[in-house]
Amino acid sequence: MTAYTATVTVRLKHGVLDPEAKTTQRALDRLGFELSALRSADQYEIDLEAPSTGKAREQVTEMADRLLANPTIHDYEVQISER
Amino acid sequence: MTAYTATVTVRLKHGVLDPEAKTTQRALDRLGFELSALRSADQYEIDLEAPSTGKAREQVTEMADRLLANPTIHDYEVQISER
Q1: Cβ-defined contact of A42 to B39 (cutoff 8 Å)
Q2: Which listed residue, A64, B16, B44, B59, has the most CB atoms within 10 A of its CB?
Q3: The pTM is what?
């Protein structure tokens, strides 16, 4: 078994309203910053052991499908690195 | 001016309690997944224009210092890429 750290980034799908991002962008505008867009995402860093990178990716993808992301509104991305 | 996308990842400092991560980890445990640790982070993707990568990084670092991160409890990391 090898120790891996998986990073799961969960983003809202294109077209899904993101009031938190809107509020943050407006606050930055008010502070005088000029930005064209701001998107927010949730990131999970998961330490786990698995026999291979492929198996680690499989497990973490299942975690994302079952709990971390809501397929109706979210897209997600999994990155695996050895710890 | 060049168009950049900056990614700001805001993490809780080591030792700061993270009840959201604890709850998520416990839920994954209950679903039968085996993981050694789970940390959560907030990520902001910011589209902006700047004369150089250095200037873009400077602006985004200031946004993080002034609004996106709370230096008492957060560490953050800025990545800049051309759009």
Answers
A1: no
A2: B44
A3: 0.91
